């Protein structure tokens, strides 16, 4: 049954929206309405930023004992955990994410992140007395950066919001979140959890809207930092604007990562691991390894193994626990992915598998798991982010050539190396220009920095490094 929200979560309560504009959310599988919410307009953003500003400047939030902020984060985690079922089902219906993945990331990781940053808040030294070689001491102080504008995409809407909220709150910041319009329903569940957890008024606010509203938030004079996850194109615009304003910004952007399959790799293990590394969320994953680099000596074997695995994946309703590949998030996005498949064919790559819409689905934005072989690394499908279940196999001559091809990309976000010899694979992992890379698997670690190099962005999320991104440094010299 479609759900309808009438208010916006601003300043610790449910507020009447400034306009009667609404956002409709459509189920990616049934193409039926899932629900609707009010669309925030500039006046709502002004109110939300004012509330966040006041919570930061005038309330004890930023200066509270870290243990108090940790208690709020832990209560928020508990309130979210209670809503896991609703949240994960909502996400899967909105963007097509198979439920098992949604439970793992939109549920489990989101809750774990809140608890992780609660613990980090209490173990971090926010002020340190440091002896100077000049014979006096300096107080090095880390204090909250201020009001954060958090802009979130549609592919992992819950966990990518929490990835910003959790360290920001641990630091003592207040936050205005702008979710993506296509997956906005889950943000109302997050707001309900925040209210139940007793997050102080103004510390967390949500303004649902599109890119213009996001741009308004980015340049708002009341905001001190922008935390953005989304496309590289939008990230460049936001980075330019923040540069002009001297506003700190973190940019988690697109990717075109490589899975390097070495000549001694066990191909059964490779295909098992590639489900998450290359195809998670139907390929709608920033760090997906969509370029499979295969040694010329075993090229046909790798193509056969990947084709066999991809062809056997179960396509279907993301709410069915056995589904491995669901639909794409929107009709426009499917058109974009299909455009890339046509481009791959046009540029001479060999279509091994898929390429069309799966039989038996007259509704839902499904695309068949698709495999291209004989792909030139310079071609469009090897260089641009497709964001769908489309993989390309590219041949390499030796380990050095594999590294060269992996690095021949505008992006550098994820990656993986597969070999019977973990030390050899790790040596290659060291040489790939990327922010994260896995050896014989790819699992994102909450305790380690995650982010990109080159066109994949600036800054890091997860780990203590993300907390540092919400803190500013001050040195108070204490000359004797
Ligand atoms: P998008 O850039 O179109 O939108 C992302 C968010 O930014 C949305 O909320 C959108 O409304 C807003 N937005 C767009 N243009 C804006 C602007 N000029 N100013 C302010 N806000 C703006 O991206 P998308 O299609 O929603 O998400 C998919 C993209 O996100 C892919 O490129 C993917 O790789 C990337 N992504 C990156 C990571 C990462 O951690 N690096 C994680 C997930 C997704």
Automatic annotation (TrEMBL):
Active site positions = 252
Q: What class of enzyme is it?
A: oxidoreductase
Q: Which Pfam families match?
A: Aldedh
- Write out the entry's keywords from A to Z: Oxidoreductase
> What CDD domains does the record point to?
ALDH_AldA-Rv0768
Q: Can you state which reaction this protein catalyses? A: an aldehyde + NAD(+) + H2O = a carboxylate + NADH + 2 H(+)
This one is known as aldehyde dehydrogenase (NAD(+))
